[in-house]
């Protein structure tokens, strides 16, 4: 039999020369921020594999496959359009109500899928967390990647809907979609990172996030108009508090980008500036969430 002793000794010598670093060690100074990002980038192929695995597992053995990504938002659109729009009269004063609602559903759907899916991502990948070392952030990021795929499919349908009603978003207002998308991604990832870490230690967090995202949905003008809220909340300070909710701003930005029929209606002042401010605040929240995640990840394997 071949003697593997020299090979093993060489391997142990090589491993012995590597610096030891505890999982969850934050580092100091700028390196504490740069190193985690560098590690995620080094594992980008694994991140891509996890995204593809999530998508394939979700639609495995399905006859319609990825078309199921449209099922839930289209059913929601039909319910809101018929029940809220016509039976309860929410469509009065909202031209092209279907486009209006679907723009809001597309935006909120992205945030909800990132936040809820990311929160449960560490527990869902417990086997990998306990056996293989990789940056734990790749699991919430993979959930965000699969959510972006579904969002892209819905975005194509939304664009086709604008063509169907004869009002395509070929205006400068279309660029409101960019900061709005940034706000959704930043806040969704911030929620996913911090709550996925908390969820390892307290499993009720996942259910709490589902309830919270449902409340945030109804606190944003998705199936009712911002103009309706402005007519009810006459106090400008309270109206600003409602409007400056980052998710409300993101929904308003998407509606401004795709809902051309609403250009003649009253809009919140300085919407673009509000979106930029919300994006900057969100980036700060994302950094804090990432630091909390890094501090808590050291005991993930033991807790799982």
Give me the number of helical elements: 15
Average pLDDT rating: 82
Give the uncertain stretches in residue-range form: none
Order of helices and strands: HHHHHHHHHHHHHHH
Gap between N and C termini: 41 Å
Quick overview:
With 304 residues, the chain is mainly α. It has 15 helices and no strands.
Question: Mind explaining what this structure looks like?
Answer:
- This protein is mostly helical and 304 residues long.
- It has one domain.
- The protein is built from 15 helices and no strands.
- It has helices at 5-16, 31-42, 44-58, 71-87, 97-119, 121-124, 126-131, 138-164, 177-201, 205-218, 226-232, 236-243, 246-258, 271-296, 300-303.
- Helix 4 (71-87) packs across helix 5 (97-119), helix 9 runs antiparallel to helix 13 (246-258) and helix 9 runs parallel beside helix 14 (271-296).
- The radius of gyration is 23 Å and the shape is elongated.
Walk me through the topology:
Elements: H1 5-16, H2 31-42, H3 44-58, H4 71-87, H5 97-119, H6 121-124, H7 126-131, H8 138-164, H9 177-201, H10 205-218, H11 226-232, H12 236-243, H13 246-258, H14 271-296, H15 300-303
Helix pairs in contact: 3-8, 4-5, 5-8, 5-9, 5-10, 5-13, 9-13, 9-14, 13-14
Q: What descriptors fit this protein?
A:
70% helix, elongated, single chain, 304 residues, mainly alpha, 15 helices
């Amino acid at each position: 039999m071949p003697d593997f002793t020299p090979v093993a000794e060489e391997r142990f010598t090589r491993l012995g020369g590597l610096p030891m670093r505890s999982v969850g060690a934050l580092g100091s100074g700028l390196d504490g921020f740069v190193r985690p990002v560098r590690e995620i980038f080094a594992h980008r192929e694994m991140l891509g594999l996890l995204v593809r695995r999530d998508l394939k597992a979700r639609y495995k053995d399905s006859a319609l496959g990825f078309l199921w990504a449209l099922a839930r938002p289209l059913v929601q659109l039909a319910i809101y359009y018929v029940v809220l729009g016509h039976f309860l009269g929410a469509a009065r004063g909202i031209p092209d109500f279907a486009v209006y609602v679907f723009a809001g559903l597309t935006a909120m759907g992205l945030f909800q899928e990132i936040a809820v899916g990311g929160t449960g991502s560490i527990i869902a990948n417990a086997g990998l967390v306990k056996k293989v070392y990789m940056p734990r952030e790749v699991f919430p990021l993979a959930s965000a990647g699969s959510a972006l795929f579904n969002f892209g499919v819905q975005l194509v349908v939304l664009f086709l809907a604008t063509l169907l009603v004869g009002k395509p978003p070929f205006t400068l207002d279309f660029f409101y979609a960019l900061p709005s998308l940034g706000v959704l991604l930043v806040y969704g990832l911030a929620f996913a990172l911090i709550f996925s870490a908390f969820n390892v230690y307290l499993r009720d967090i996942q259910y709490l996030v589902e309830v919270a995202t449902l409340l945030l949905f109804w606190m944003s003008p998705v199936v009712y108009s911002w103009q309706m809220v402005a007519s009810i909340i006459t106090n400008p300070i309270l109206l600003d508090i409602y409007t400056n909710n980052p998710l409300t701003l993101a929904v308003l930005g998407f509606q401004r980008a795709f809902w051309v029929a609403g250009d003649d209606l009253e809009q919140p002042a300085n919407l673009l500036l509000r979106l930029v401010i919300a994006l900057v605040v969100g980036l700060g929240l994302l950094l804090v969430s990432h630091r909390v995640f890094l501090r808590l990840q050291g005991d993930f394997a033991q807790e799982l």
